[in-house]
Here is the input.
Amino acid sequence: MTDQAQKAEWNSDQLRRAIKAAGVALWTWNVDTDAFLMDRRGYELWDISTQEILTFEHLSEKIHPADRTRVRDSFSATRAVVGPYEIDFRILSGLDVRWVSARGQGSDEDIKARLMTGIFLDVTGRKQAEEGHELLAGEMSHRVKNLLAIATGLTRITSRSSGSIEEMTAQLTERLTALGRAHDLVRPLPGGQGSAALLGDLITVLLAPYDETAAFSRRIRVAVPRIGVGESAATGLALVIHELATNSLKYGSLSVASGTLDVSGTIDGDFLVLAWTEQGGPEVVVPRNTGYGSKMLERTMSGHLGGTIAVDWTTGGALVSLRIDCGRLSS
Here is the structure.
């Protein structure tokens, strides 16, 4: 059976068009004189004038300093290579950094002639995609470790404040679900600015379960500044909002059909001030002792959010003031 690939032939014009379409740049290096020749595409890729007399030493000055020695050693080694060779490295073009792949096929004839020939290929897009995947994998690993640490802490705190296994299971499930809803909102921001959720979106989603039935419908109002909340802060803020909402559902305004909750916010210098205002609930009973939930709120506010929490037990209901460092909020 005849191998059709062996019969295939292309003329020089067809090969030239194929090379141009592939974005390939051709190069030849005289290892004795150090003279380096490239086609027009090569000069464009390296951002070098075609009027310049080029040597490999001159060309290597455009290589990223972190890659320069490695590339020089690799090119020197190709003088005695019989077979394919390839190396990827970065080059500097003004303020831009490009990734280039140098490839060639060494032969006995090339070694005897002291001429090495190969191609340059711009692989910046592929390298950026690989770096993006590596960053994503690292970010996911970081998130998982953080969530496991938080889950461990929540389990310990919840076990201390629960009277039964059933109560502990219910409270822990609610707290972990609140964290899950917060993390669902964290998305990459444009221009590599990090990951964040909008403050209003975050609070609204966290409070949605308490306002979704007919009895509770439209009793919760959220009006806060348009500001981003980073991943770490989103975790802490989710715990705070969930704890306040849980207390309200048990003892405060959300425990009765006539109660309302208003969450508002203002910027005060370097701080975001959130006001959690409950109205229309049952008669206020000031707690005598500080429970584990209150301790968790204080630790989260001071540790995660760099702020403070103050509670005023008014006759109409609880008024909670949350003061959060804006710098911490974006982290």
In short: The radius of gyration is 32 Å. Residues 212-216 have pLDDT under 50 and may be disordered. The longest strand covers residues 83-93.
